[in-house]
Amino acid sequence: MNRRAFLTTTASTAAASLLVPATSRALDLTQAALPYAPEALEPHIDAVTMGIHHGKHHAAYIKNLGDALKAASITQTDAVALVSDLSAVPEAQRLLVRNNGGGHVNHSWFWNWMAPAGSGPKGPEGKLGEAIQSTFGSIDDFKKVFGEAGAKRFGSGWAWLIVTKDGKLKVTSTPNQDNPLMKGIVEEENLGTPILGLDVWEHAYYLKYQNKRPDYIAAWWNVVNWKQVADLHQAAAK
Ligand code: MN3
């Protein structure tokens, strides 16, 4: 592929990621551009953090995943399928693929779970809003449960809102770069389709919020892409 074709492909992939629900499509092993400018989430998430997070951390997961797959002679190019069932990965590379494959998948979703403040619905509406209210009592109660899952995650990890296999909403949390699709890694009752996830690794917030993870979580609600969450809920709850 020449440079121009590459740039065209990258641009169309970034545009497509805005239209297609992130957790219901296959993800290849390349990095899409951020769907907004690095400064677009300020003041809630700062531009320097976004630039490093996407350009260095996420990029490193992809590089390391590629190296591990090469070492294992694995030709699977769907990262979601890969991390959903790690049993086919040789033992020598399994932890590398779990961590870096999870890192690639989780971050690819995460960029699309955020959008500039004020660019979409301010909260969950329609069927998603109803499901959250009937499951958690109210939107605020949901935010409290989800925020606590993130705040109480010891060390590094993620908080999740998932649709379980029986179609119910549930808040869960995973360590490191694990996610709720990982069969055999995540407890059976916490498996499901992620429709919202929050990165609580220090690299996601430390420059602006230092040790105050709860302040990062409180600010993050301002940039949640509720349209994306609603689309994923609709696709997963069928
Ligand atoms: Mn991260």
Structural shape: globular
**Assembly type of the shown chains?**
single chain
Content-based structural category: mainly alpha
Number of domains: 2
Plain-language structure description:
The chain has helices at residues 3-19, 47-71, 79-84, 91-112, 126-136, 139-152, 206-209, 213-220, 226-236, and strands at residues 157-163, 169-175, 193-199. It has 238 residues and is mainly α. The protein folds into 2 domains: 3-22 and 45-113, Helix Hairpins, CATH 1.10.287.990; 126-236, minor pseudopilin epsh fold, CATH 3.55.40. Helix 2 (47-71) runs antiparallel to helix 4 (91-112) and helix 5 packs across helix 6. The structure holds manganese (III) ion. Manganese (III) ion (MN3) is lined by residues 53, 57, 107, 199, 201, 203-204.
Detail the topology: elements first, then pairings.
Elements: H1 3-19, H2 47-71, H3 79-84, H4 91-112, H5 126-136, H6 139-152, E1 157-163, E2 169-175, E3 193-199, H7 206-209, H8 213-220, H9 226-236
Antiparallel strand pairs: 1-2, 1-3
Helix pairs in contact: 2-4, 5-6, 5-9, 6-8
The protein binds manganese (III) ion.
Manganese (III) ion (MN3) is lined by residues 53, 57, 107, 199, 201, 203-204.
Short note summarizing the structure:
The protein has 238 residues and is mainly alpha-helical. The protein contains 9 helices and 3 strands. The N and C termini lie far apart (39 Å).
